[in-house]
Inverse folding.
């Protein structure tokens, strides 16, 4: 990030070069890992599904007793201005809200708001064709409904993921599947139901959009998913802002279904792309 | 912290005014709450039990796959220099090691090391006489043996603690007691055994010292402690670097023992102070 000399960021009241965006070490993110964030895509210089991401951002802040220093209207205007300044038509925008400069290193103060924009690489056709190999780990996030900055477990598991030549790790608690560190999990059952966990998961914006799209063509259900269910599934996939819909072909060394990306998965990816296109076209220039 | 104009901090390679100690927003503590820390007391310009704290700091870093950029010898020399520069004879020193300036906001890079020194207020005689009233909450830290910067739960519970006019919150998992967000828990049983939880707790330096002192005068045990055990206990207390030994007189509204600081608690506080004095005297000037 330090080398992006022409990119601007927003910090509290000011737009400034990203390379000059610093927080004092008394910030509660540094002292106590305390903060929330959100992240959305920009395509053709337009933010996608912005209202849904902002809703969740304000919701996460509320769950962590933090107040976003800007109204939703002012935040939208700030985002629009940042997009104009940076000229990064295909990118991701991240908003981080921390516990602020704490006087005693423990109690939250006036939050610091950071907004950064970075070029974004979406999965390539080759990555989609290959699909993902994943492992599993028994863990549930502390406050699953909030998008907090706490990724200690996911980051610690990076080495294990690499050692097992996998692409990601799926959390479960006692065999009941929840989510990936940064994505939601779906499977397609033998009777062609599109199923995703409903408890202890982050309510992903892409998850919600894919559920709605699935409901137009298939049986669709939010409910309990177990590791055993994966063994019996036809297909599995993950959803996220940056990954869209990405097939999962292997779990803990065992193939999912045929061991190749499935037709329902690929259909939903196509549908999601179409939804994104439709939103871009619906926007006034 | 921003107003301490005459205090110096250490950041990576440099001593600099604390007010000028900043991290770029790409640091993994800000992006993902990823880091470890430790904290020790300075009395009469001498660090107390420094070897034990440094051992734990290097241990926490290892558990989180972070490398402390200084050898233990170099770190000690840096701490000595900071103490000389700041002239804060009664103070606390905090070392924070973060995941560093991550290129992709997720994978750790070269860690950032921050060392700050701040004046310290120890419990007053009145606070010790009054003792603490505490509540309980079902929660266990993700990686209890590591002193990570993740205090989301403890900080979120601050409002609940205040609303119930309590002083702190004790974690348990299904009735099995572990620790406070920033302190260890002890009780004195009916048969005068000094007992502290052994599983899923941070191995406090003060905890270890108090256990050793207790072993000289009483039965001493590390083992399972339940919420029911507290109801049957004679005394209870917490230990921490800043709190030393602090009596607990009430748990969830019910008195512990007589509802006043107990003799074993007060004896162990006296013994701990004596141990601190002895360490100060043993040091070469």
């Amino acid at each position: 990030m330090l080398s992006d000399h022409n990119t601007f960021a927003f910090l509290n009241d000011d737009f400034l070069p990203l390379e000059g965006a610093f927080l004092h070490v008394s910030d509660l993110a540094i002292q106590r890992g305390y903060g929330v964030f959100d992240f959305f895509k920009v395509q053709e210089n337009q933010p996608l599904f912005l209202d849904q991401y902002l809703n969740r951002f304000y919701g996460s802040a509320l769950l962590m007793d933090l107040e976003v220093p800007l109204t939703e209207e002012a935040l939208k205007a700030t985002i629009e201005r940042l997009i104009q300044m940076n000229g990064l038509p295909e990118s991701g925008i991240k908003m981080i809200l921390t516990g602020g400069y704490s006087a005693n290193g423990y109690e939250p103060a006036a939050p610091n708001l950071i907004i950064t924009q970075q070029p974004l690489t979406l999965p390539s056709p080759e990555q989609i064709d290959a699909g993902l190999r994943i492992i599993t780990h028994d863990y549930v996030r502390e406050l699953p409904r909030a998008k907090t900055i706490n990724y200690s477990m996911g980051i610690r598991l990076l080495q294990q993921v690499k050692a097992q030549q996998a692409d990601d790790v799926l959390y479960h608690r006692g065999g009941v599947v929840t989510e990936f560190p940064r994505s939601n999990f779906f499977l397609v059952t033998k009777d062609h139901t599109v199923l995703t966990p409903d408890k202890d998961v982050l309510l992903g914006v892409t998850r919600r959009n894919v559920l709605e799209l699935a409901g137009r063509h298939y049986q669709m259900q939010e409910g309990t998913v177990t590791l055993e269910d994966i063994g019996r599934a036809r297909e599995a996939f993950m959803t996220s802002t940056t990954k869209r819909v990405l097939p999962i072909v292997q779990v803990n060394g065992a193939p999912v279904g045929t061991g190749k990306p499935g037709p329902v998965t690929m259909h939903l990816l196509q549908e999601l792309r179409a939804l994104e296109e439709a939103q871009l076209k619906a926007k006034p220039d």
Q: What stands out?
A: The first strand of chain B starts at residue 8 and ends at 11.
